[in-house]
Recover the amino acids of this structure.
């Protein structure tokens, strides 16, 4: 894909070879429908091929970074092996394409970050959260295992105890708490977020490109060592698409109520 092929991502060339990338479905809080999900997978290859780009900054339009996956996408995949397989392949490629992108990536997390948006926010090389940001891995709340990026990076970022707590409860993490536990690199006041992201990006873009590139590559080997764990978690997540619990979770999210999961009903 070329830049003009993208429908839900805006691109702006700024400063010293910095590509500013904005997820652009603000009316839907930048939730990833099928199109945006595919674009999030492909964009890292597009960026990597662009010799002008030294650094990428990614943020969200409006008041959210990205409010996760579009529920219609999830519902369409329920017990649909072809769609589940497509989602599995895309979810896997999203993680690996970010990790293999040679350009440094800075995320400017301006609001809620959930689902596919959280993948991008946390797999960025440097993650900067607004003090208004709220992060959550909502997989378990939706009745499926925490696949996507969780198993490959949360234990490394914030330790196993915190990772298990937040992944198994789907509890939200504030920007300040995310910085405190090491889930993000920095947390800054909301009105300072764009300037701080630009400051960091400029430092990277004007620094020794080869040294930065190869430092990123070396450090990402820690993540790639966890690839079998990640692939396993993703397969377990996909099993959930055949479980009634997932639809229980989707209905609760749509109705903004507490979910009653079929698997927890006991003898009722």
């Amino acid at each position: 894909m070329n830049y003009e092929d993208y429908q839900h991502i805006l691109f702006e060339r700024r400063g010293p070879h910095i590509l500013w990338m904005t997820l652009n479905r603000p009316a839907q809080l930048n939730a990833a429908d099928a199109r945006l999900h595919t674009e999030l997978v492909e964009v890292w290859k597009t960026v990597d091929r662009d010799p002008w780009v030294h650094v990428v900054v990614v943020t969200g339009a409006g008041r959210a970074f990205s409010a996760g996956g579009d529920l219609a996408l999830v519902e369409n995949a329920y017990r649909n092996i072809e769609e589940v397989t497509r989602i599995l392949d895309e979810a896997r490629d999203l993680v690996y394409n970010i990790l293999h992108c040679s350009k440094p990536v800075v995320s400017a997390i301006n609001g809620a970050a959930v689902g596919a948006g959280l993948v991008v926010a946390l797999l960025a090389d440097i993650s900067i959260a607004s003090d208004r940001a709220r992060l959550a891995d909502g997989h378990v709340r939706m009745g499926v295992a925490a696949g996507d990026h969780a198993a490959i990076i949360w234990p490394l970022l914030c330790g196993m105890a915190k990772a298990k707590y937040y992944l198994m409860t789907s509890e939200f993490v504030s920007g300040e708490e995310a910085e405190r536990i090491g889930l993000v690199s920095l947390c800054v006041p909301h009105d300072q977020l764009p300037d701080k992201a630009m400051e960091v990006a400029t430092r990277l873009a004007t620094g020794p490109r080869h040294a930065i590139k190869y430092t990123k590559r070396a450090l990402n080997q820690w993540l790639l060592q966890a690839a079998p764990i990640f692939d396993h978690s993703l397969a377990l997540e996909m099993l959930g698409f055949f479980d009634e619990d997932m639809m229980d979770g989707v209905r609760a999210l749509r109705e903004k109520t507490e979910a009653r999961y079929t698997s927890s009903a006991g003898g009722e």
User: Anything to note?
Assistant: The chain has a mean pLDDT of 95. Residues 76 and 83 are 8 Å apart (CA to CA). The chain has one domain: 3-190+207-255. The first helix runs from residue 34 to 49.
